[in-house]
Amino acid sequence: KWRETKNAIRKIAAYLPAADVRPVAWIDVNDRLPDLHDDTLEVADEVIEYKVSEPVLCVFNNDEQIVAIYEKDEGDKGYWVDFFGGSCLNSVTHWMPLPALPEEEE
User: Fold this and answer.
1) Is the separation of the CB atoms in 52 and 73 below 8 Å?
2) What residues does 67 pair with on adjacent strands?
3) Which residues contact 28 (CB under 8 A, 6 or more apart)?
4) Which residue has the higher pLDDT, 47 or 20?
5) Strand duo 56-60 + 64-72: pairing
6) Residue 105 neighbours by CB under 8 Å, 6+ apart
7) Which of 12, 16, 34, 36 lies at 20 to 30 Å from 1 by C-alpha?
8) Segment 10-44, tens digit of pLDDT
9) Distance of CA 1 to the CA centre of its chain
10) Mean pLDDT of the chain
11) What is the pTM of this model?
12) Cβ partners under 8 Å of residue 49, min gap 6
């Protein structure tokens, strides 16, 4: 009976449109860090180049959640930064991508 049900589900799923669905699971920072892209910051007359992630949801201090970004400076030192407050986070253990924004209705 289960095999028939499983096969029926697979047949139905084949007709469903593909969706841009991100997995909803925490990622251990020891397993993988967020993807980074190049960015610049202009301070006084100096341009600083660095790499930064998109905002992600993080777990730090073992039980607190916060939106943060992961950055790497020229020396390849990586660090987590509170997205809203700008302070460094020293004890991030896990992260996950934020969901996509809702689509606007016309």
Assistant:
1) no
2) 57
3) 93, 94
4) 47
5) antiparallel
6) none
7) 16
8) 656 555 555 555 556 899 999 999 999 888 878 88
9) 40
10) 80
11) 0.67
12) 38, 39, 40, 74
